[in-house]
Known about the structure:
Layout: E1 9-14, H1 18-24, E2 31-35, H2 45-61, E3 65-69, H3 78-85, E4 92-95, H4 101-115, E5 124-129, H5 132-136, H6 138-142, E6 150-153, H7 155-161, H8 174-186, E7 190-193, H9 202-215, E8 219-222, H10 228-234, H11 239-257, E9 263-265, E10 268-270, H12 272-295
Bound molecules: coenzyme A and magnesium ion.
Amino acid sequence: xxxxxLMRSVLYVPGNNKRFHExxxxxxxxxxxxxxxxxxxxxxxxxxRSLVREAGRALATKGVDVYVRMNxxxxxxxxxxxxxxxxxxIRGFVVPKVRGAEDVNLVERTLSSIEENLKPHRFEILPLxxxxxxxxxxxxxxxxxxxxVGLVFGAFDYTLDMGTSWSKEGIxxxxxxxxxxxxxxxxxxxxxxxxxxxxxxxxxFLNDVKVGKKLGYTGKTIIHPKQIAAxxxxxSPTGSELDWARKVIDAYEPALxxxxxxxxxxxxxxxxxxxRRAKDILRANDLIKKRQSRSGRGKPLG
Length: 302
Ligand code: COA
Ligand code: MG
């Protein structure tokens, strides 16, 4: 798990839409993905690159973590995207249609060559797992280098590649959607869930966010401001989880000092597993608070 990055709400923002760029700076998101790929028509790619450079600067000053979704590394556009938009305002690149570690390596080489000309900066890589080959190789992709900090699932290209189609029930992507967070966790990185396409279907969306959380994702890609609040809420500790975590730590630390590794708290077993979980909950809460104080956005937490 990437413990220093908060990536609950991860909003895609088409790279050629200036109004959306401005709007993104007012929203309670952890991360913006400025898109140069499939939300940008071919004859807008050039304009989008220059708008994305400006938007990256503006959003970074507002405390939003910015990634750029480049075009695929072998598309003829992707490596130039990197060369033309890379700046210290950008945390890194979302790499679409990754089929194996070799695609990550192409990006890695381009990033290394660029970093020589920038003040010390280390770009991160978020591979999009959205092809059958990518799903099969997602563990190798997750381990393709230290820049890879998370895997992002993309259900729409994945179902296209499989010759099937996305449904609300999701049976067609069950295996892929379950495999990706396991591979990410085994490699020690985060997993970000796929988008839900209908911003007006609140109930269906909420259910979808909860499924992703259950499967072990640490955040979700979204497409519309209406989807932000539910994602932030579901991927944040609840008030009762925070109360529980504080109680566990207060009871367990003194017990440990007295040589007890297992105790009963309110009649229920607490051992090292619960203690670690309690620490994870408080760590997540600290990250959220830090982001809120940096950006001045978001509801105060307990
Ligand atoms: N990022 C930032 N702001 C956004 C946004 C986004 N992705 N989507 C909508 N908004 C803003 C709009 O600017 C508008 O705010 P404003 O009135 O203050 O300007 C408000 O949210 C409502 O937008 P709405 O009119 O409902 O959106 P739309 O009907 O024009 O567009 C979508 C709907 C789904 C096409 C649009 O949300 C979108 O392009 N999403 C991202 C798609 C994408 O990136 N896909 C690639 C990855 S899957
Ligand atoms: Mg895609």
